[in-house]
């Protein structure tokens, strides 16, 4: 199954990237091209919604980590949501992403971000 990737702007500068299918050696370049175009717009936040990803290879992991690294270098943030158990197991095995970058849903991530912003605002006052 070929990889399909959609991008939606959730709010200004916050983008949800939704890959559907397998991210492997053959399909990872598709994700790479989509992310490269997105990074050129200087996003503040990129969220990978992995709910429809059934398999990820080392090339797919490489692309996820490359996105995270490039976004961080530009002052942006990264998260993943809706990770399916087989894909989650890959990331667990390599311990590639901190827990605070993996969420069960976009709603859970929104709650986390709201709490972090409130905490920062409280410290500033």
Task: Describe the SSE topology.
Elements: E1 4-11, E2 14-23, H1 28-39, E3 45-49, E4 52-56, H2 58-73, E5 77-81, H3 85-94, E6 102-103, H4 106-124
Parallel strand pairs: 2-3, 2-4, 3-5, 5-6
Antiparallel strand pairs: 1-2
Helix pairs in contact: 1-2
The residue fraction in helices comes out at: 40-55%
Number of helices: 4
Poorly predicted runs are: none
What distance lies between the first and last C-alpha atoms, to the nearest angstrom? 52 Å
Specify the CATH class.
Answer: Alpha Beta
Description of the structure:
- The protein has one domain (4-124): STAS domain (Transcription Regulator spoIIAA, 2-Layer Sandwich), CATH 3.30.750.24.
- The protein starts with a strand and ends with a helix.
- α1 packs parallel to α2.
- Strands 1, 2, 3, 4, 5 and 6 form a six-stranded mixed β-sheet that branches.
- 46% of the residues lie in helices and 28% in strands.
- The mean pLDDT is 84.
- The longest helix has 19 residues, at 106-124.
- The chain has 125 residues and is α/β, with parallel strands linked by helices.
- It has helices at residues 28-39, 58-73, 85-94, 106-124; strands at 4-11, 14-23, 45-49, 52-56, 77-81, 102-103.
- It contains four helices and six strands; from the N terminus they run ββαββαβαβα.
């Amino acid at each position: 199954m070929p990889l399909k990737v959609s991008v939606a702007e959730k709010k200004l500068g916050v983008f949800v990237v939704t890959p559907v299918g397998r991210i492997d050696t053959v399909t990872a370049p598709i994700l790479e091209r989509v992310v490269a175009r997105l990074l050129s717009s200087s996003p503040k936040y990129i969220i990978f919604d992995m709910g429809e990803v059934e398999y990820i290879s080392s090339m797919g992991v490489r692309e996820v980590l490359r996105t995270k690294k490039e976004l961080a270098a530009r002052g942006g943030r990264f998260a993943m949501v809706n990770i399916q158990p087989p894909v989650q197991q890959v990331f667990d095995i390599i311990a590639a992403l901190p827990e605070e970058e993996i969420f069960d849903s976009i709603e859970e991530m929104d709650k986390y971000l709201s709490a972090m912003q409130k905490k920062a605002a409280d410290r500033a006052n």
